[in-house]
Structures are given as C-alpha cells and as structure tokens.
Design brief:
Elements: H1 8-22, E1 25-27, H2 33-45, H3 55-66, E2 69-73, E3 78-83, E4 86-92, H4 100-106, H5 115-122, E5 127-135, E6 142-153, E7 156-161, E8 166-169, H6 170-177, E9 180-185, H7 191-196, H8 202-221
Antiparallel strand pairs: 1-6, 2-3, 3-4, 4-8, 5-6, 5-9, 6-7, 7-8
C-alpha cells in the first residue's frame, strides 16, 4: 500500500480544481411540489423500522402530517405510495444489508451524511455507481449532488439509494428525484484505489473516480507522483 504523502498531488491538483463542485448546489428549474412532498414523506417513512414497537403509531402520525395514502407489505417491507395521481412502489434497502452498523444507521438521520461513503461501500460487480444532481428535500428550489447505485434485475433497472433507504425502479426514481446524471462508475475494482487514497473525499471519487484511478496509475508508472507538489 502506498504512503499518505504519495497522494499529496491529489490535494494540490485535482481537489483544488473540483472543490467548488464538491459543495455546489444548482437552481432547480423544474420544481414539482407534489413530487417533493412525496420524496420528503418517503425519507421520513423509511426512517421508521417495521420492527420498532411504535412503528404503526409513527407511520400513522406521518400519514396525518403529509396526507398521503400508502400500503405496506410487512413480509417484504415494501410500500406503495399514492398522492395526487402519483404512485410509487419501493422496498426498504435495510433487509438487504448485512452489516449491523449500517442497518442501524439506515433508520437514523446519520444516513443523511453518509451518501457517498456508503454508496462506495456497497459498490460491487454488475452494479453502477451513479452521481448527479437531485432535488434537495429541504430546499426544493435547489438541486444538490448525490450518489446512488443502479442495478438491472430481471431486465428491469433499479436504483439503490442509501440515504433514502430504498430500492425503486429507475424510471420512478428519476421522476421522483428529478435526476441530472453527472458521472457513473462501472468497474468496482477502482474502489481498491479509493481505499488506498485516503486523502480523496468520497464525493470527489464518485464524481471522477475513473479519472482519479487512471491518473494515480500513470503517476506511479512514470515515477511522477510528486511532480505537482
């Protein structure tokens, strides 16, 4: 494994060029109040663990708060949401996660700040890691950078969103979150490079992981690792 100093050029060259992008939001020119309302409801709904003793009371309060009808299949932890002629079906992500810490995190607000880190951790073969702009749930007039996974299952494309704790059809996700894709990673082997490059923020790697991995390889092969310092 390479040493920490060998990645100082990343901070000097690549991070400086992308720091504005890392924290940038853009104006949402296509605000849909109904879809934003549904997305906020889903975010709060998926914070509720069906195994919690107060689950039904909590979701009942949410139903009154948002005035949204929904059905739940307790056996599969799947939901059907209906609001103003909009219908979305999805399943909770948590039953598919085997890590106990991540399972607990999915039912807490801590998941909000783990978007890129956890998406990278779940990246695997036959899955794409996608980064783009989505509607900001708190400020619907803005769009913010977000990462998620996409996978084809039985000839259908699905999205796996850690922050939303859900698995949903890609076409529904794109509409619900008003997606503008920026980048996608298809080869999970580049994560080995990310795991070594501990100076690189997860968000930056999601935005430009292919380029970062290639540049690191070139720097190593040409002994030029310190050339930009």
């Amino acid at each position: 494994m390479m040493q920490k100093d060998e990645y100082r050029y990343i901070e000097y060259e690549m991070y400086q060029k992308t720091k504005d992008t890392l924290f940038q939001t853009i104006v949402n020119e296509d605000v849909n109040p109904d879809l934003n309302h549904i997305a906020k409801f889903i975010y709060e709904l998926t914070l509720q663990s069906p195994n919690h003793p107060n689950f039904y009371n909590n979701v009942g309060d949410l139903k009154q708060k948002y005035h949204i009808d929904f059905k739940m299949n307790y056996n599969t932890w799947s939901y059907q949401i209906t609001y103003h002629n909009n219908t979305f079906l999805f399943r909770l992500l948590s039953p598919f996660i085997h890590d106990a810490k991540m399972q607990r995190e999915l039912f807490s607000e801590d998941r909000r700040s783990k978007c890129h880190e956890r998406t990278i951790a779940l990246f695997s073969q036959n899955v794409k890691l996608v980064t783009g702009y989505v509607n900001d749930l708190q400020f619907p007039h803005l769009k913010t950078i977000h990462s998620w996974l996409e996978q084809t299952i039985d000839h259908e494309e699905y999205v796996i969103d850690y922050v939303m704790n859900m698995v949903i059809l890609k076409r529904d996700y794109d509409r619900l979150m008003n997606v503008d894709k920026i980048n996608e990673l298809k080869d999970p082997s580049i994560i080995e490079t990310y795991q070594q490059t501990f100076l690189i923020p997860g968000k930056l790697y999601c935005l430009a992981g292919n380029e970062i991995a290639e540049e690191i390889k070139q720097k190593i092969f040409t002994n030029d690792i310190f050339s930009k310092i």
